[in-house]
């Protein structure tokens, strides 16, 4: 069985979430912070040997004050992010333990990914070296100008919406980062594309939403209510009644 590490990306600015007190990974969802839901999805897997949460340097002091017990109990590593997503993933990879063979990158703000989808994308990455979850585009797509007028209707055939986790053989990801220099891909799949690599697409679920706005938070709560409950034996949040990050 190969060894996986999971990078939980939580270093974004949350500019569209529009909450004066919380960034979206740290807000409560079903009585625990969003990022902790994401960690739970991977923590119990026997092939996941390391979980690294990547946070913004500006959040470090308060994050450790509020969530330090969780980090200790769950044996997590903490890395500090950079200006862009790719910088944050690079920084997180510097914390990888020896013996890690595959790296999964997952958005902290996707708390609803299913265990079955994680299993599917992990297995696909073992076969191809690089795989992501994605869903086919089903809505009609319009390209709109700055004046909010439609410029064209875009053919949606063969278009998919990328999700996370995105999973890669460690050497493939490391080599790709070395090759791109200062370029800034929007996700890890594009990084592999930029260096000539191939990435497999695994059909995911539309319930694996990314929380971007307050409305998304309510939708994520409904998705969690409808999903099978993950089994987890270890304590998750020693101070669950605390008023998190407020």
What is the compact description of this entry?
The protein contains seven helices and eleven strands.
Task: Describe the protein's architecture and organization.
Residues 239-246 have low confidence and may be disordered. This protein has one domain: Spore Coat Polysaccharide Biosynthesis Protein SpsA, Chain A, CATH 3.90.550.10. Strand 2 (28-29) and strand 3 form a beta hairpin. It is built from seven helices and eleven strands. It starts with a strand and ends in a 20-residue tail after the last helix. The protein is an alpha/beta fold.
Search tags:
single chain; 246 residues; alpha/beta; Spore Coat Polysaccharide Biosynthesis Protein SpsA, Chain A; seven-stranded mixed β-sheet; 32% helix; disordered C terminus
């Amino acid at each position: 069985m190969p060894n996986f590490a999971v990078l939980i990306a939580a270093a974004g600015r949350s500019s569209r979430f529009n909450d004066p007190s919380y960034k979206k990974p740290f807000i409560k969802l079903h009585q625990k912070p969003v990022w902790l839901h994401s960690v739970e999805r991977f923590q119990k897997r026997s092939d996941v040997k390391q979980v690294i949460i990547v946070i913004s340097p500006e959040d470090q002091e308060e994050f450790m004050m509020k969530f330090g017990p969780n980090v200790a109990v769950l044996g997590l590593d903490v890395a500090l992010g950079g200006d862009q997503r790719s910088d944050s993933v690079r920084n997180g990879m510097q914390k990888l333990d020896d013996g890690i063979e595959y790296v999964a990158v997952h958005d902290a703000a996707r708390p609803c990914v299913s265990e079955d989808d994680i299993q599917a994308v992990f297995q696909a990455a073992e076969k191809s070296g690089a795989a992501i979850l994605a869903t086919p585009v089903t809505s009609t797509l319009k390209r709109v100008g700055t004046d909010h007028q439609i410029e064209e209707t875009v053919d949606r055939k063969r278009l998919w919406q990328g999700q996370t986790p995105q999973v890669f053989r460690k050497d493939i990801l490391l080599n790709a980062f070395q090759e791109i220099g200062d370029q800034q891909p929007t996700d890890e799949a594009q990084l592999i594309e930029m260096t000539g690599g191939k990435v497999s697409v695994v059909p995911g679920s539309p319930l694996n939403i990314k929380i971007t706005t307050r409305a998304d938070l309510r939708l994520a709560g409904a998705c969690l209510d409808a999903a099978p409950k993950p089994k987890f034996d270890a304590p998750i949040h020693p101070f669950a009644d605390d008023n998190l990050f407020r």
